Amino acid sequence: MSLRKTLTAVNKPGSSISAGNLTNVSEVTGSSSKITFRPRKLRKVSSDPIIVITASSPSLSTKSAVDLALLHLKSSDELLGALITTHNDPPVFESANPPFLSLARSIIYQQLATKAAKCIYDRFISLFDGGESGVLPESLISLSAVDLRKIGVSGRKASYLHDLADKYKSGVLSDELILKMSDEELIDRLTLVKGIGVWTVHMFMIFSLHRPDVLPVGDLGVRKGVKDLYGLRDLPGPLQMQQLCEKWRPYRSVGSWYMWRLIEARKTKLSK
Question: Is 219 a catalytic residue?
Answer without folding.
Answer: yes
